[in-house]
Design goal:
Elements lengths: L22 E9 L4 E9 L10 H15 L1 H4 L5 E4 L2 H5 L11 E6 L6 H13 L2 E5 L8 H6 L2 E5 L5 H11 L5 E5 L4 H10 L3 E3 L19 H10 L6 H8 L3 H11 L13 H8 L1 H16 L5 H18 L6 H10 L2 H5 L3 H4 L7 H7 L8 H11 L2 H11 L3 H22 L1
Parallel strand pairs: 2-3, 3-4, 4-5, 5-6, 6-7, 7-8
Antiparallel strand pairs: 1-2, 1-8
Length: 420
């Protein structure tokens, strides 16, 4: 059975200790230009999805761990949307969070009691922002909506006519309108027409494929470079010729090699010297970073961030699973090439110099070579139980996967800064 290998972006994973969270993931909220406006943080303690048993205990646990691991790091300094209960606001537990970075999310079904409304006003005066989720237009949510800085409407639950009606209710306020659960480019286009300003969902990883379903001609040299990178040893002369065919790629590659992620003690001025100085394994990794950056030139940066995280996680976790780190790095990176190039994975893998099992992993086959890609995609989607099932099937410790993922997130952020 094929698996879905796309998804919205992940954040730091957290080790489970007594009373602590097991997973912390983030989903980007993008503006109409595809830039990250903020992140919704998602948590799991290893028991029930979304801490269903005790919402207040879940919120306290989440707040404690958010303080430990740092809201600014989790959300990259952008607004962090944090799900809250009414009690967490009225009892002001949320005051442990930095007001200027925090958006407090309340369900629109919350009863707008005088104490809750008063608490919202106090918290907003301190600098917190308020978001109302799953807005349906019911009369009980009107008072809360009037205080909200963001109102989220579930695009999957409301048809176009219903969405437009809800938006008319909110037009008189200065609220920022967020479309939730936007999963396809068609839904994104409709939400834009409706007047939404922000978008949350996996649509940006699923751009519409070009009609020809062919790789653009100016990208073919990059695929030849990928082919050369898979050779043992790398053909140094041919590699240098290929990279120098593309000035933009040459520039990106030299910037990355000279950046802190390579920790070089001397400046590298040519592709050939770069390969000799950093070694083949590092050169393969950096070259693929540069190629992915070029592929993603006209797409949201979040796609590139996710590709870097996937690639590095798969590479770091590979050895413990008896897999080849270089090949796993390639599988993680290539998993988002279809989103970058706007072609189908089925068409892309036929043009790539991959072994058959690597192709099958990218197509979502349930095989050992695809297990790490499957884990990180499940993590991005918040499919925590499947993440644990994969860990158990590999016979590895849960903490090992979490350490690899946390390192991958930090590495991806450094790679993006070096590539800027």
């Amino acid at each position: 059975m094929a698996r879905d290998a796309t998804g919205a972006n992940a954040a730091n994973s957290v080790q489970k200790q007594a009373g602590e969270l097991r997973y912390v993931a983030r989903q980007p909220i993008l503006d109409i230009r595809g830039r990250a406006h903020g992140y919704e943080l998602r948590f799991w303690d290893g028991r029930e999805p979304n801490f269903g048993a005790d919402k207040n205990l879940a919120t306290r646990t989440m707040l404690d761990n958010t303080m430990i691991f740092g809201l600014e790091e989790l959300a990259r300094g952008l607004p962090a949307f944090v799900q809250c209960t009414p009690d967490s606001l009225t009892e002001e537990w949320v005051r442990v969070l930095p007001p200027q970075l925090t958006v407090l999310e309340l369900p629109s079904s919350a009863e707008a009691t005088p104490s809750l409304l008063a608490a919202c006003r106090r918290l907003k005066a301190l600098g917190f922002r308020l978001a109302l989720t799953d807005f349906t237009g019911n009369l009980n949510s009107g008072a809360l909506a009037a205080l909200a800085d963001y109102v989220k409407v579930d695009a999957a639950k409301a048809d176009a006519a219903r969405r437009r009606g809800l938006l008319r209710q909110l037009n008189s306020s200065a609220v920022c309108l967020v479309a939730q659960n936007v999963e396809t480019q068609e839904e994104y286009g409709e939400a834009c027409k409706d007047g939404f300003e922000l978008f949350q969902g996996y649509y940006f990883c699923r751009p519409e494929a070009l009609e020809s379903h062919r790789i653009p001609g100016n990208r073919l040299v990059h695929l030849e470079i990928l082919e050369n990178l898979q050779q043992e040893p790398v053909d140094l002369k041919r590699m240098s010729q290929l990279v120098m065919c593309d000035a933009s790629l040459t520039y990106r590659l030299l910037r990355l090699v000279n950046s802190p992620i390579c920790a070089m003690r001397q400046e590298v001025t040519s592709i050939q010297s770069a390969l000799m100085l950093v070694g083949e394994a590092t050169f393969r990794r950096i070259a693929m970073l540069a190629i992915a950056s070029d592929f993603n030139a006209n797409q949201p940066e979040e796609i590139l961030r996710m590709a870097f995280e996937r690639a590095r996680f798969c590479e770091l976790a590979a050895s413990a699973c008896g897999l080849d780190p270089s090949e796993q790095y390639l599988i993680g990176m290539v998993s988002l090439f279809p989103a970058m190039l706007r072609i189908l994975m089925e068409d892309l893998v036929q043009s790539l110099p991959l072994r058959e099992e690597a192709r099958q992993a990218l197509l979502g086959w349930d095989i050992p070579k695809g297990v790490l890609l499957h884990w990180i995609v499940c993590h991005e989607h918040g499919n925590w139980q499947e993440c644990d099932a994969i860990v158990h099937s590999c016979g590895l410790s849960h903490e090992h996967f979490l350490r690899c993922h946390a390192e991958a997130v930090a590495w991806a952020e450094a790679a993006l800064k070096s590539n800027a």
